[in-house]
Amino acid sequence: MSNPWFETVAVAQRRAKKRLPASVYGALIGGAEAGISLGDNLTAFDELGFRPVTAGQPAERDMATSVMGQPMSMPVMISPTGVQAVHPDGEVAVSRACAARGVPIGLSSFASSPIEAVIEANPQTFFQIYWAGDRDSMVARLERAKSAGAVGMILTLDWSFSHGRDWGSPDIPQSMGIRTALRHAPEVMARPRWLATWLRRGKLPALGVPNFGVGDDAVPGFFDAYGVWMFTPPPSWEDVAWLRAQWDGPFMVKGVHRADEARRAVDAGVTAISVSNHGGNNIDGAPAPIRVLPEIAAAVGDEIEVVLDGGVRRGGDVVKAVALGAKAVMIGRAYLWGLAVNGQAGVENVLDVMRNGIDATMRGIGKGSLAELGPDDVIVPPGFSPPS
Ligand SMILES: Cc1cc2nc3c(=O)[nH]c(=O)nc-3n(C[C@H](O)[C@H](O)[C@H](O)COP(=O)(O)O)c2cc1C
After folding, report:
1. d(CA 103, CA 91)
2. Who has the most CB within 10 Å: 64, 89, 102, 387?
């Protein structure tokens, strides 16, 4: 087998595209409508520049930090993704990679691995829920996460059920059976290495969401759970405050895009927010999170922890986000591509790419610690951020 190591996330993405069945790869890309936000998440980082120093750089760079009480070896953590069929080891492999590299994992309520197994691999696990179902079922999910040992809760709110994509949505089956297998056989047969990875583990993708069910219910199917979520009326900020009060520990609201709502999140008692547009999967036209980060960090950064996710593909992106006010970033597709390519080792590879990139960038701009980073370290072009 050729060397599975990859030097950048872009290389991992190319390999993932070659390895995964088209519908699985398409589900990872996602994006809403015309893909404007999806594209902007990357473009915006590219618009930012650095002014390198020539001599006098510190010999060592310290990039350790913490989010929601969890120490982390660098300002990068795993964003929750509800995604199926990428790799048979699923989120347990991601969790092991996090433990090996000293970063927390956010685990989705739509993930394919049960929370208990993920926490066994890495106790630094934040559980992510949506506002889905009735209050009793939400509390039941929190209680299960608590008894499993989750160290924080992430409530994701930025999903508007916009299902159209100009390039066509992937065909995602409801469950795995003979008919589904036959329908997907052509694309699967074109990806024998992916299939072999599953067969070696003696399984096929189950397409269930084990963290969404409550009580002794059987594991719900992905789209059954999605339906529950879709038909749940959106929460008010009072509802958010109520849910926050049900969780005795650090609590993040993910998906904040406006300074006034960041303030509402503070008032609701959260520990942290993630400035996010759900990786370009919320309403199309939402600007990249990095464009609105400075305004939000200025509004609430002294009171709660501000995290960013969306479009982070290299260590330099992480440094840009920290310089503009984020305590840390969360990565989504980047680790999914690593997982697709090489399981746990692929996720470790992605985390190493991030770490090396952060280190090289900090060296290049002459910074020895994250605390030294500030807006002056980044060249921000005029008109970069939308008017507030
Ligand atoms: C395939 C896929 C599934 C996702 N599922 C979830 C989810 O279940 N819960 C959640 O909070 N965010 C989910 N997200 C959003 C990610 O947590 C994160 O916000 C996004 O991926 C960041 O952008 P990036 O992929 O450019 O890093 C998902 C994203 C992708 C790409």
Report:
1. 14
2. 89
Q: Beta partners for 106?
A: 126
Which residue, among 303, 298, 304, has the nearest Cα to 273 in the 3D structure?
304
Is-contact 237 264, C-beta < 8 A? yes
> Which tokens is 96 given?
């092991």
The confidence score (pLDDT) of residue 382 equals 98
Residue nearest ligand 1's atom 15 by CA: 278
The whole-model pTM stands at 0.97
Q: Known catalytic residues?
A: 278
For 230, the token pair is: 């879709």
**How far is ligand 1, taken at its centre, from the CA of residue 259, in Å?**
22
Residue tagged 């069910």 (tokens): 213
Token pair for 17? 């595209």
139-193 per-position pLDDT tens digit: 999 999 999 999 999 999 999 998 899 999 988 777 777 778 788 888 999 999 9
Residue nearest to atom 27 of ligand 1 (CA): 332
The dihedral over CA atoms of 331, 193, 84, 101, expressed in degrees to the nearest 10, equals: -30
Secondary structure element (H or E) that encloses residue 126, with its range: strand 125-130
Q: What does the CA dihedral 167, 277, 307, 130 come to, rounded to 10 degrees?
A: -100
Cα distances (angstroms) measured from residue 367 to each of 68, 323, 352, 370: 25, 11, 19, 8
Note the pLDDT tens digit of each residue in 237-255. Answer: 999 999 999 999 999 999 9
The length of the chain is 388
To 5 degrees, how large is the angle CA 259–CA 265–CA 269? 145
Out of 23, 29, 77, 79, give the residue to mutate to test ligand 1, the one with the largest number of ligand atoms within 8 Å of its CB. Answer: 79
Is 60 exceeded by the pLDDT of residue 1?
no
